[in-house]
Amino acid sequence: MSIESLEIPLASTDGHQFPLLARVPAQAQAALLWLPALGVAAKHYLPFAEELAAHGVAVFVHEWRGNGGSDLRPDRDHDWGYRELLTLDLPASHAAMAQRIPQLPLLVGGHSLGGQLAACYAALHPAAFAQLWLVATGTPYWRSFPAPRRWLLPLFYRFAPWLADRRGRLNGRRLGFGGMEARGLIRDWARVGLSNRYAAAGLDMDLEAALARLSIPVHGVLFEQDWLAPQGSLDALLARLAPAQRKLIALNQRQLGTRADHFAWMKQPLSVVECLLE
After folding, report:
1. Domain that holds residue 225
2. Is the pTM of this model over 0.85?
């Protein structure tokens, strides 16, 4: 199957410039807007995009502000949070995908934080997408995690924003969590982890109410050894959505062909692709 490789230059309304990476098969049956995990550049999802394209799904991989090909990096003078991602950057990628692949069913999904924000973005645009795809995703709310880790999470959700404010950004590489992250993004994320409510500083839309109205089919994939997104975390995320068809599959190391953790699947995505397409 012929697959076109694209790098589409985009700009948000505030001037932020970033690329949208795409793999588009000649006879696409649907188009997927894919959102990366925290601190993961879009290019790392190209094996996944190519595997899906080989199965007839055009994939457009969004680049988070501050990552990869984005022209911004967080520091004391450059800060952002969920509001900028949901209302400035994602609409640009969404519009570019819809323009490139007109009249095809549009899907949205993501990995880890990308899956959470895919759900939030779909909730803000409920008529735009036919399905929501989630891989290794779930709410960070501390009570949705098993003991003993759940008891440590509230401490981290208070420490990470404090450290980000003190340093001007969060160096997630040193903490083993994310990359160089903006202060506002970490505050928004930690707020969900503590309160179990999705919200964005400066956003006048009620994300929780929008999520409660979102009723589209969900395809989810979990991994047996993934302590960052356990079953309870995904269940807690899905519990805030309106009832709809859901297909959830948990993969172990034998089924996946590699470690069944949060990231290893990205280099061997075939099993994940097959689950999402079932």
Report:
1. 3-277
2. yes
